[in-house]
Design goal:
136 residues, Arc Repressor Mutant, subunit A
């Protein structure tokens, strides 16, 4: 049996905990969770997605998203609107608050990524990203 230091799953979990903690600390001042931050990122790429589309992009179920989106709307990060062509569909848009802070939040993400990867060479960073994408 592998020791924890040799177990891939253990190592991935520890790397996730460190990366998640770094981003969580950086987002605390904004009142955002890591998941909320990811949702804002998806909407920054394409505003007006419906809940199902957000779920597909982030690989999350609608039940997980529903409460998170409600809290984001309550805190002024997003606006939820019924689709004009199908009232059963809810479209999600960045609020003016989110738009105003979008560049600042991009910088938060860049700094977080930089902190996580600071001990790696450029080649190692590229390889790590490729390997992580292959594992998805």
């Amino acid at each position: 049996m592998d020791t924890p230091e040799d177990c891939t799953i253990f190592l991935l979990a520890k790397a996730y905990q460190r990366a998640h903690g770094i981003l969580k600390d950086r987002l605390r001042g904004y009142g955002l969770t890591n998941l909320q931050f990811l949702i804002l990122g998806a909407l920054a790429e394409e505003d007006g997605l419906n809940v199902g589309e957000i779920g597909q992009r982030l690989v999350l179920d609608s039940a997980t998203l529903s409460g998170t989106l409600d809290r984001m709307a309550e805190n002024g990060w997003i606006n939820k609107e019924a689709d004009p062509h199908d009232r059963r569909v809810v479209r999600v848009f960045l609020s003016s608050k989110a738009r105003q802070l979008s560049e600042e939040l991009r910088e938060v993400r860049a700094q977080g990524n930089q902190e996580v990867l600071k001990n790696l060479s450029l080649e190692e960073k590229v390889l790590l990203k490729r390997l992580l994408r292959d594992l998805r």
